[in-house]
Amino acid sequence: MSCFTRRDLIYGSLCSAFLTYVPAVSAKTPQIIDVRTWPADEYTRVTIESDAPLKLNYFMLRVADPIRLVVDMDGLRLTDKLKNIIQKVKPNDPYIQRIRCGQYKPTVVRITIDFKQDVSPQIFSLKPAGTYKYRTVFDVYPVQEKDPILAILKKEEEEPDAVQKLVAQVAEGQKRMEENREEADADQLEQILAGIESGTLVPVKPEVQPSAGKTPKPSSQTSKPPVIASTKKKPQKTETKTTSKRRTRALVIMIDPGHGGEDPGAIGKRYRTREKDVVLSVAKILRAELNRLEGFRALLTRDGDYFVPLQRRVQKARAAKADFFVSIHADAWVKPAAKGSSLFVLNTKGRVSSSNKWLARNQNNADLIGGANISTKDKQIARILMDMSFTAQVSDSTIYGAYILNELSRINQLHKSKVEQANFAVLKAPDIPSVLVETAFLSNPEEERKLRTQAFQRKLACAIGNGILKGFGRKAVLA
Ligand SMILES: [Zn+2]
Asked: Region Disordered: which residues (predicted)?
């Protein structure tokens, strides 16, 4: 059995590339700036940040008890800061038992990571990004994946005909998307008919084609559902669908708390509130609320403080056969006056306002700041997906998004009153309606204060949840 994963082998060449630009002896020795650990069930990350690239050699000792990874860092002197690495490993880390370090040779510091179980480490380096300098990253994955969705993902990635499988998967997902839309339409019709019969509802003329700019008018005084047009040509079937015909499969909602781990996202000015914490909290409330409902299964792309690369979040949604994807964020702007909620769907072409471009670039930078180890295969998958049609996805996302935005308008001021478009990497699943919610502005002192409260986090979660429910033709019941 090979000791190292495919990515480790890639790193081998990366290492030699390093040799070409690592400063000669006369240059100053690298200084360790910080050592951080991000323990999580999915994987544990250890990051060593330095002011210059580190030159290192490493090997895995599987015959040892415990199994360990030995890393020799060249051109380093052992400092107190580096010794702190030992204290940084949390005792509840699922994979790492302890980390030791010592001055192995006059200019070589040796780090030994003892593991609790057999692991598959991925080691890679990151160039300076955001506020970070050079980083050497050790991602410790379990050999046997425990999470069923990740297990599916890993298996898929290793299959030789992964590309064909992906294309088939997308086709299946697009079919699911269409079924959901038709079903929701039928439910809308039932609700409307019931409303007309009881005299509580006056029929509204359906719009012919929903466009990105169309949002049901936010109105808090009425509870009638906005009537929306189907994104597809009218279904050929003439019979009216009833609830009894609803399929038995639960609707899978993938909730994506933005950022995490190395990537804190936006940081509030007044209380230093971190976006990654607030959005995780909102996401967890939303998951709990949706999971209480019959016919819904809500999942998170991350349930702790660790980073998940953007494409990985989309892949998780696809592996879970998600019916809907919602990424939760908190905004920030240079001017503290900016406030309110906004909602985005993917823009694949056409005009994007410069502020939305800025926002997308900022969010997509998450992979650089959070630290993604992107393989050639990842790039290949991304390219294939981008060649597919997003028309139906964006159209459906706009409808779901409009419902969510409408619900958000009941609990918060809207920053933009219509569904916006931007080129967010996390929204790039051609087969899953996907939206990104900017809950409020962390850069606005008043909204930062609100975002920190459990009450407001709950309001946000319920508003998003109710919007999703309405999008699927169900009643808004979360409060
Ligand atoms: Zn964000």
From this structure: 203-245
